[in-house]
Alpha-amylase
Amino acid sequence: AIVEMFGWPHADVEKECEFLAKAGYMGVKVFPPQEQIMSTEPFQNVMNPWYFMYQPVSYKLDGRMGTRDELRSMIQTCRSLGVRVYADAVVNHMTGGGNDANPKHRNPDANCQEFGAKQSTADSPMYTQNYVYSESDVTGLPPLQEFPAAAYGPQDFHCERVLNSWTDPLDLNAGWLTGLTDLNTERDYVQERIAAYLTDLIGIGFSGFRMDAAKHIQPDDLVKIFGKLKRNLGGTLPVDFITWLEVLLGGEKDLLMCDPDSGYNYGSYLEDALVASGFSQEDVDKVKIWNSGYPKEPDAGACTISKK
């Protein structure tokens, strides 16, 4: 079993790993290790709610849970005790529209209420197009999606699209999930940046990932991202590698899991695509599906990534 340490700082996870080892846990999953937004103003009456940690600013491993050095120390301690460590990997999007460093925001749906800038855990700048009423002092133009610390610019994001259908593949893949700036994962450059981040996580000692919002990255793009990761690692995935994709179901079991011909399938279609791209069956078996069919679609549990 892999235990979830929801919101635990790296230093506290490091202390807990001795108990986890004695209790027989195979691994521990930690909150997203990345630079995230921070704010000095309440958001919906809460200061820096937990979901801010799922809003990346860059792929620097300095976030609310601790620094890169603290992360490395925790992983080394846990692995020395026989406990693997898994990362929550947020690669579908960056921080939400308007949650950026621009000091001049205004909400037209709230009597033009103004709000200030948000910071980040590593002080990197980031700018989005939303709620802006001023132009850039540098370019003289309104800002677009600009995340220089992640080496992303406007061309690396899908055009803003409301995600209002859970059965439309275009909406699922290109829609801005709850207003989060959606990465254009069809773009080779974006795939390379994501693969580089995942490679860094493996390099610092992680054994795999929970792929957040995986169903909002179309299956063919995931195959290419995993292919680039495998290439970066020398052609094979690590022996202890396990990754599970978050594929939430709620009326879309045929589209997402059970019908391999749906055009947007994380079941046998994804498995076949991985094999066709050069993955061995052993490496394919290291990619799992976190299937949440129950209670709406309890029979969807039979539709797994493997046909066996």
In short: The longest helix spans residues 188-204.
